[in-house]
Amino acid sequence: MASYTNIDPSSDRGQTFMDAGQIYFKEGTFVVKEKAMAFQNIGTYCVAPIVRQPIENPVAVSQLNISSKVAVPPSGTFDFWAVGKDCCDPSGGEFTCGEVANDRARAGIRMMRDDIRPFFVLAVQEWTAWVGAPSAHPLFFHWVEDPLSTLDSFYKKASTMFGQHVASFFFMNLVGTLLLLWLLYGAGIR
After folding, report:
1. Global pTM?
2. What is the pLDDT of residue 57?
3. First and final CA of the chain: distance in angstroms?
4. How confident is the model at residue 61 (pLDDT cuts 50, 70, 90)?
5. How many CB atoms lie within 10 A of CB 33?
6. What is the per-residue burial (b if ≥16 Cβ within 10 Å, else e) of 79-98?
7. pLDDT computed for residue 189 by the predictor
8. By CB neighbour count within 10 A (0-12 exposed, 13-18 middle, 19+ buried), where does 120 fall?
9. N or C: which end of the chain has fewer CB within 10 A?
10. How many CB atoms lie within 10 A of CB 21?
């Protein structure tokens, strides 16, 4: 997966970054926690748009005679999304996924799990219907401050778990072998 830097979610489109694994957004990029949405199916799948400018329409929607509750960015679409599972309430409020509370966070690690991606897509579709704004090619990210250190921590955790499982397997085989030898020796087979 590719790594991209200095991405502006208000002017860049998702289809340009379909191969992204890590994205470092431009300074001033943030997650709009107040406009988060959730989809429920066993768990709560939470999404919130990643933007660089406020998305609230400056004039009341009824005065503008438009259908969108938010100001659509220059790209014409909301394609970058911070996501997480069970980190918001069922309506999308109280969005706490990833490092959204960290003011220095402005990067994302791509969410690649095919088994849960459809639920995030449904949450985005629900959001677009709610606010009346498009999302042509949604890309889902875990919002982090430093993707490299986050990936490094994943590697360290995996290495530790691998070592523990190998040691457990060796210990269980040793116990099983000694038990079998003891039973065979007790039965008189030498």
Report:
1. 0.79
2. 63
3. 58
4. very low
5. 19
6. bbbbbbbebbeeebeebebb
7. 73
8. buried
9. C
10. 16
